[in-house]
Specification:
It comes from Corallococcus caeni. The protein contains 21 helices and twelve strands. It is α+β, with helices and mostly antiparallel strands and 459 residues long. It has a single domain, classed as Orthogonal Bundle (Cytochrome p450). The N and C termini lie far apart (65 Å). Bound molecules: protoporphyrin IX containing FE. The site of protoporphyrin IX containing FE (HEM) has 22 residues, from helix 15 and helix 21.
């Protein structure tokens, strides 16, 4: 058995002091990719965070995230408290408390609840479609990443609160904007995320804390207003307020606040990035774009998508899924070994960080033919069934901690493309491949510049 001769799988050469730290700062995803190309399916690194194993085979990913899930823990404090921003929301909480919360929050995202959400999504997306009207007439240049961030915030507001809280609520807007810039701004990188270095600088920390306070007062006011209403409603906030555990206990205001923040913070950036990548892949694949337009014309006949019609947009949805394969915003999922495990022939020592990278799995040759090729057909019903290894595709993670917003995200982006593409054409300002960065999300590094045009215009 190899582990007996050599306890560590192969990996790149390391600097005696810095390990692979310099490459990690420059481009963490490239470091992992090269490691995989040169050393195979299990690679050892010395990252800033400590000894790390990169797991590249879908079956090994399945072992870490699903089968042996008890042997691995999430990063972050064992208390399950994510600090002043995340509190004890789903993202940070652990153990029995997390399980209780997951059961309370999950019903708001069950598949049968998605259909009725379409009307609210369309309301949110229409605001972008209308804002784009004059811009399209003048052929204006926009940054699609900024546009999609705004669209997603607006639609999340509709789904959670049944209104455009972002536009209507200044403290909430200020809070979200600052937190977004802080967490996903241009300086965001693996290192700053993990070490929180920037947040330690006093001025920055003060601004961040003030933004959290503004956000909290806005959220508590929205919660109080709803609790006093005759009916809590059936949007996501209403579902959270009405949820009861088996003992009949509901959530405190603070817990509802923490879950709302987890949904906003967790949901908004990755979804905006994914929607941006969809514009990118469509622009670079005119045949696919043409097929989407044809499907929209046949199914929607010029009408906004509805609960019934959005289900029929199989190809458009396949475009979203294939885009998430090639450009997964959550490019890595990290765990830490709690106890010893064996992966393949190797021993994983307690304390080792284990990185599973959807970006790498989504290209694994054992699971994908022509992995670099954009082929939405892979996700149409017939072909989907042929895929054997479940974790060869995991843009939303896997196992217990699978993203709670997975169905919602696919619905949101499909509805957004359907609504906007019926009215507007998007042309990228540059034809070449975009430069991507892998920080808290995998995204276009400098946004994605494009010009807008009315549908059917030649120029
Ligand atoms: C393209 C969009 C999205 C991507 C790529 C994504 C990705 C992920 C991934 C990979 C995880 C698991 C992390 C881990 O295992 O360590 C996760 C968890 C989570 N996501 Fe998403 N997500 C997206 C959209 C959303 C949306 C729209 C929401 C909410 C409205 C959301 C809420 C959450 C929450 C609350 C968790 C924590 C679940 C738990 O631990 O129980 N996400 N997401």
């Amino acid at each position: 058995m190899q582990a007996l001769q050599n306890p560590l799988p192969p990996g790149p050469k390391q600097h005696w002091l810095l390990g692979t730290g310099i490459q990690q700062v420059k481009n963490p995803l490239r470091l992992l990719l090269r490691g995989h190309q040169r050393h195979g399916d299990l690679v050892h690194f010395n990252l800033f965070e400590g000894p790390t194993l990169l797991v590249c085979h879908p079956e090994h990913a399945q072992q870490v995230l699903v089968e042996n899930v008890r042997k691995y823990r999430l990063l972050g404090p064992e208390s399950g408290n994510g600090g002043p921003l995340l509190g004890r929301g789903l993202f940070a909480s652990r153990g029995d408390f997390w399980m209780r919360q997951r059961r309370l929050v999950q019903p708001a995202f069950h598949r049968p609840r998605m259909g009725p959400m379409v009307a609210g999504l369309v309301r949110g997306i229409e605001r972008t479609a209308e804002r784009w009207e004059p811009l399209a007439r003048s052929g204006a240049r926009v940054d699609l990443l900024t546009e999609m961030r705004q669209l997603v915030i607006s639609t999340l507001g509709e789904s959670i609160f049944s209104r455009d809280v972002y536009a209507q609520n200044e403290p909430l807007r200020g809070g979200i904007d600052l937190i977004t810039r802080d967490m996903h701004g241009p300086r965001d990188s693996l290192v700053t995320t993990v070490l929180g270095l920037l947040r330690m600088l006093p001025g920055r920390r003060r601004r961040f804390m003030a933004a959290i306070q503004g956000l909290n007062s806005a959220l508590y006011a929205l919660i109080a207003e709803r609790r006093q209403a005759p009916d809590v409603g059936d949007d996501i906030l209403g579902m959270l307020l009405g949820a009861r555990d088996p003992q009949g206990e509901g959530m405190s205001d603070q817990q509802v606040r923490d879950e709302l923040v987890s949904l906003f913070v967790g949901g908004h950036e990755a979804t905006a990035v994914a929607a941006t990548w969809c514009w990118y892949t469509l622009a670079r694949n005119p045949e696919a774009q043409q097929r989407v337009r044809q499907e929209l014309a046949e199914v929607l006949r010029g009408q906004p998508p509805s609960e019934a019609t959005v289900q029929q947009l199989a190809y458009t949805r396949a475009v979203v899924e294939e885009t998430l394969r090639l450009h997964p915003p959550a490019w890595r999922v990290t765990r830490q070994a709690r106890e010893e495990d064996r992966i393949g022939d190797w021993t994983v020592a307690p304390g080792t960080l284990v990185v599973v990278s959807p970006y790498i799995l989504h290209r694994h040759p054992s699971a994908w033919e022509e992995p670099e090729r954009f082929m939405p057909e892979r996700f149409l019903a017939e072909q989907r069934e042929r895929r054997q290894q479940r974790l060869a595709y995991m843009p939303f993670g896997a196992g217990q901690r699978l993203c709670i917003g997975n169905h919602y995200t696919l619905l949101l982006i499909t509805t957004a493309l359907a609504t906007l593409m019926q009215r507007h054409q998007v042309r990228l300002s540059s034809e070449g491949p975009v430069r991507a960065m892998s920080g808290s999300t995998y995204r276009p590094r400098d946004g994605l510049m494009a010009t807008l045009h009315p549908v059917g215009s030649a120029s």
